[in-house]
Amino acid sequence: MANYTLYSYFRSSCSARLRIILNLKGISYNLVPVNLLKGEQLSESHRALNPSASVPLLVSRRPRDDGFKIGQSVAALEFLEEVHPETPILPPASDAKARAVVRTLVAIVCADTQPVTNLRIMRRVRALGGSAEEWNKELMTDGLRAYEAVAKDHAGKYSFGDGITMADACLLPAAWTAERFGVDLGAFPVISRVVGNLNQHEAVKKAHYFNQPDTPENLRAQ
After folding, report:
1. Would you give the DSSP letter of residue 155?
2. Which one of 23, 68, 109, 193 is most buried, counting C-beta atoms within 10 A?
């Protein structure tokens, strides 16, 4: 029996962060699809599980955790790192500066960029008569520009050195989404290199939105 249940939507970048890291750490989990376009996240039953009415939601089925729920992706990533330190996704605790850099990259995506370009915000932009697509493209470009500026001094094969970190798990789904909205990743050479390397990793391929149980047939990987 899997120790975790992940409530996820196939195209949710926040959900993809957790799928990547669960796969990377070799942690088995059950996936429960939540269709954001149909508003399933707004149901009373889902709100009872996650008051934020969003995905992802990670539920720990480990005996000691008694169904412990985490309704925010970064908190869930930190939790997984603490209880499953194998295949670390943060630099060693002895290197506070390195950990701060990785967390800065995480925040650029998860605090500055994704929250203002998600489905809820897009709907409100349209309701005000704006173009949600142009809104997203501009703000995603700004976020990637900031990420590039920080990562260029620290990147190796991945965003920080040659091991996958939390930063990569946050960057990659954001890059997938940015490409959907017409952002040219070629303008960001460090990000482009890192994304190319990440896309070749088996943990990432398994986590990609093309390969999820709720991926529509017309979007499935061939």
Report:
1. B
2. 109
